[in-house]
Amino acid sequence: MFFAGSRYENAGTYNVTTANGKTVTVTKIPLATRKPLLGYHRRLEGQRLDLIASYYLKDANAFWQLCDANNAVVPDALASHDLIGIPPKGR
After folding, report:
1. 9 closest CA partner among 49, 80, 59
2. d(Cα 40, Cα 60) in Å, to the nearest integer?
3. Which residues of 16-29 are buried (b: 16+ CB within 10 A; e: fewer)?
4. Which listed residue, 37, 39, 62, 91, has the most CB atoms within 10 A of its CB?
5. Long-range contacts formed by 9-15: CB under 8 A, 24+ apart
6. E strand or H helix at 53, and its extent?
7. pTM of the predicted model, to two decimals?
8. Measuring CA to CA, which residue among 22, 27, 59, 19 is closest to residue 87?
9. Tens of pLDDT along 31-68?
10. What is the CB-side half-sphere exposure of residue 55 using CA atoms within 13 A?
11. Does residue 82 contact residue 43 with C-beta atoms inside 8 Å?
């Protein structure tokens, strides 16, 4: 259901019954793991996270690892950050 390398790839699922009795399958929210940072990238105006992830992590889809490393729940939360912490490559 999720692409390879996604933070949700191995998160698992469970079933929930809604108020109207319908059963739906939901994805567990994975907890971010804190790893020591390799360093920081000074972000230029307009520089996208997928391009930063592609350069440092060799995977544009790994932008979520930048979010986790910088305590950002969503990518837009990093828009105002001048320095982006770079985590080690890999999950």
Report:
1. 59
2. 17
3. eeeeeeeeeeeeee
4. 62
5. none
6. helix 49-57
7. 0.69
8. 59
9. 766 779 999 999 998 889 999 999 999 999 899 899 98
10. 11
11. yes
